[in-house]
Amino acid sequence: IIADYTKLSSNTIQIQFPETNDNDEYMIIIKELQDIASAIRVTSCLLLPLIMNEDEDNLLAENTSDVLPLLSGMIQMYNRNDQRLYGFSFIELVDGLSKLMVRGRSHTFIDQNLVDLLLNLLENSAKNNDLLECVSNAILNASFDEKVQRFLDSDRAIRIITCAQNNSRSQLVQKNCEAILWTLNRIPHRHCSTISNSCQLQGHIMISYNRSVIAMCLKIRDRLKALHYSVWLDVDNINGGVLESMAQAVEDSSIVLICMNEQYKQSYYCRLEYATELRKPCIPCLMQPRFRPYGWLGIIKGAKLHVDFATLPFEEAFALLIREIEIIRRDIIVKNNCNATYDKTNPPFYHQHGDGFTSADSNYVDNDLNRKYPSCLEKTNVAMSWDVSEVKQWLERIELSHLETALIDVDGKLLCTLHKMKQSSADSYYKFLDKHFDRIQAAQMSDTLKFDYELECLFNSIE
C-alpha cells in the first residue's frame, strides 16, 4: 500500500472548471488537497526505506525514481532554514534523500549543483553531528554513480571529505567519509591511491554461501568488483559439475569469504568447500541475526574477526571486510617476499590482527615465538612414535596440561588419527573436541583454538 502511495501524483486531484472570482474558495481547497497528495507521496517515500530490507532494493528504486528529483529540489530550495515543508525539517529531508538513493544505481536527477550543496553542508556543519551524518551518508550513497564520482573528483571535494573524516567527532561520519574515499579509488587520480586490477592477489576472492543469502552476496560481489578485486561467485562461474567447479574455485582462491547462517551450516556443498579450504585464509561473515555458530563454524568464528552483515549497516560491515582483506593481502605479500619465512612483525594470514581472536588470549601467538619447544618444526614420524607420557609432556609444553583428562591413554598414533579426522571430516573433528573438552570445567574456547593450532603445527599442516 505504501509503495502505491509513492506513485500518487498531485494530478490525482484535477481542477475541471475555470478559475473565477466566484469559485476562489473552491480553488483554495482543491490546491490544499493537491498539496496533501504531494505530502502523502513524499511521506510514503520517506517511510518506505525504513520498512524494507536490503533484498528489496529493486522495489525501492522502482517506487522512488519519480519523487527523488522533487526531494532534491526541496533540499536545494530550503537550504538549512527553519521552514518545514510538508511537516519535515531540513535534516529529515536530507536523511530521507540519503536513504532513498539506492546504492549501485544511476540517478539522473543528481547534478553538480546538488553535489556542491551536499559538499557545502559537509564543510560548514561541523557543530551539527546529526546533519553531518545525514549528509555524509547521502554523498556516500550517491558516490556509487559514475557520474557523481566525476563531480567528486576535484581537489575541493577530496579536501572537504578528508577534513570531515579527520575532524568530525562522529564515528559514523568518519566511516562514511572513509567509505567515500574507498569508492573514489575507482577513479585514478592523485588524491587516493588506486587499487591495482589484481590487488596483488594471485587468486580471486571466493564467496562461499548458501542460496538463502544470495541477494547480500551479490551486493558484496558488486562492491568488491567496483574496487577492482577479482571475485568468484558460483552464479557467474559454475561450469560443468558443481562439485568440481567449487573445488577448483577454492583451489584458485587467495581468500574465502564464509557467509554464515543456519542454512550454510547444514549445506553439503558448503561443507565440502570448508574441507577443501583448510589452508586458505578465510573471513567469516555473519548473515543471520542472532545466529550462534556451533561445531566447525563456531571454531572458525571464534578464531577470527568476523564481519557482521546481519546487524551492522552495510557500509560499516563492508568497510570492516575491506580492512580484513587488505590485512590478508599484505600478509600474503610478506609471506611471498620472505619465501615463507615467519616474521613476527608480519604475522601469517591465518592469524588475524588485534581483536581477531575474539575469545582467545591475544598474547598467545607472541608467547609461542618465545617457547623453547619448536612445535611447528616437530617431525611427523617422531610425534607418531610418542607414548602416552610423551603426549602429556607435549601438553605441558604448549601450556594445555589441564586437558590431560580429555586425552587419557592417547599416544602419538592416536593424535595422528585425530589429525586425519580433521582432514577427512572437519565437522566430526570439531564436534569431537567440543564433546570431550566441554567435560573439563576449566576448559575455555581459547583452549580449543590453541589445541587445534598446535595439532596442525605438530603434523606440519601449516606452512
From TrEMBL:
InterPro entries: SAM/pointed_sf, TIR_dom, Toll_tir_struct_dom_sf
Sequence intervals crossing the membrane: none
One Pfam family hit: TIR_2
GO biological process: signal transduction
SUPFAM superfamilies according to UniProt: SAM/Pointed domain (SSF47769), Toll/Interleukin receptor TIR domain (SSF52200)
Domain (TIR): residue spans on this chain: 205-321
Descriptive protein name: TIR domain-containing protein
